[in-house]
Write a structure and sequence with these properties.
alpha+beta; 3 helices
C-alpha cells in the first residue's frame, strides 16, 4: 500500500492533498516509537468533512499540513510526543486518543495544546 493512502479524507471523497513532509514525519515517528503501525485518524480533510467534524476553518488539515495519530494509552501518547518533538514537530495537539502533529509554518511555531 502507498503510505499516502493513510492520509486520505475520511469522509469517503477520497481526496488527498497531504504534504509529503507529513507522510515522511509520520513514518519517522512510527519508526522511532517502535510500537508498530501508528493509525492516522485524520490526515487531509476536504472542507465538508472538516466542518462535519467541527474542525477550525483555518485547520492545517485543510492544507495537508497536519495529521492526527491514534494512540490507545498514556504510555503510547508519551512515546508519540517524545518522538514527534525529537523529529522536530513544533505544533502538537494532545487529545484523549490521538496526537495532532502539524508542520504549518504560517502559524505559531512552538506550541502544544489540548483538545
Amino acid at each position: 500500500m502507498d503510505r499516502r493512502e493513510l492520509f486520505e479524507c475520511k469522509c469517503g471523497c477520497r481526496g488527498n492533498l497531504i504534504d509529503p513532509r507529513v507522510v515522511t514525519m509520520h513514518q519517522a515517528i512510527e519508526e522511532e516509537c517502535l510500537m508498530g503501525d501508528l493509525p492516522v485518524n485524520s490526515g487531509w480533510r476536504c472542507q465538508k468533512h472538516n466542518k462535519a467534524v467541527g474542525g477550525s476553518p483555518t485547520s492545517s488539515h485543510l492544507r495537508g499540513l497536519a495529521a492526527d495519530i491514534g494512540c490507545k494509552s498514556s504510555a503510547q501518547r508519551y512515546e508519540l510526543l517524545r518522538a514527534a518533538m525529537h523529529q522536530g514537530v513544533g505544533r502538537i495537539g494532545i487529545g484523549k486518543n490521538f496526537v495532532h502533529i502539524d508542520i504549518d509554518r504560517s502559524k505559531d511555531k512552538r506550541v502544544i495544546w489540548l483538545y
